[in-house]
Amino acid sequence: MIGRLNHVAIAVPDLGAAIAQYRDALGANVGDPQDEPDHGVTVVFIELPNTKIELLYPLGEGSPIAAFLEKNPSGGMHHVCYEVDDIIAARDRLKDSGARVLGDGEPKIGAHGKPVLFLHPKDFQGTLVELEQV
Ligand SMILES: CC[C@H](C(=O)O)C(=O)SCCNC(=O)CCNC(=O)[C@H](O)C(C)(C)COP(=O)(O)OP(=O)(O)OC[C@H]1O[C@@H](n2cnc3c(N)ncnc32)[C@H](O)[C@@H]1OP(=O)(O)O
Ligand SMILES: [Co+2]
User: Fold this and answer.
1) pTM here?
2) What separation in Å is there between the alpha carbon of 39 and the centre of ligand 1?
């Protein structure tokens, strides 16, 4: 069911510093910040040869990233995103297996303009899992 690793997300307390670190210290190809108010985040994608890094910074009230940074003030790995062909079929199979699909269970449009869903970290070895239909 899951396919390629689409991205690994890192929550950051200082987006400018993280951009500079990846661009200058790591020589990475860093995209421009993209506000995603529907998700309460500003995202910056870093293109790697085999996947992407997604830097996440809180946007607006009630951002899930703000809550994460309260617990992890230096930032840290926030989620992994796997690609799926059919996000509804994946969701239904996961729900049948007893996994918790976050939010109202309906896919939202993510940063790539594709439907995404999130699965509770407690059901996946302490790792927040995002699925993106490609
Ligand atoms: C533009 C979209 C973009 C894209 O790629 O397209 C994105 O990726 S947007 C990313 C931001 N959106 C989300 O993260 C949505 C899904 N997240 C949530 O619904 C919440 O953040 C949730 C439910 C994962 C955590 O909620 P909360 O912050 O309120 O924390 P809790 O205390 O309720 O957490 C319960 C339990 O889980 C642990 N936890 C929290 N966040 C994570 C995490 N990122 N990875 C691993 N574990 C996490 C938390 O520590 C609690 O554990 P406990 O042992 O009970 O203390
Ligand atoms: Co993501």
Assistant:
1) 0.97
2) 12
Is-contact 127 79, C-beta < 8 A? yes
Tens digit of each residue's pLDDT (9 = 90 or more) over 50-64: 999 999 999 999 999
d(CA 115, CA 109): 4
Starting from the CA of residue 70, give the closest ligand.
1
Selection from 54, 48, 52, 51 nearest residue 19 by Cα: 54
Residue 16 tokens read as 């400018």
Amino acid at 1: M
Residue type, 81: C
CATH no. for 5-133: 3.10.180.10
Strands 115-119 and 34-36, how do they pair? Answer: unpaired
- Ligand 1 is surrounded, with C-beta below 6 A, by 9, 36, 39, 41, 43, 54, 56, 64, 67-68, 71, 78-79, 81, 102, 110-111, 116, 118, 121-122, 126-128, 130
Which tens digits make up the pLDDT trace of 60-94?
999 999 999 999 999 999 999 999 999 999 999 99
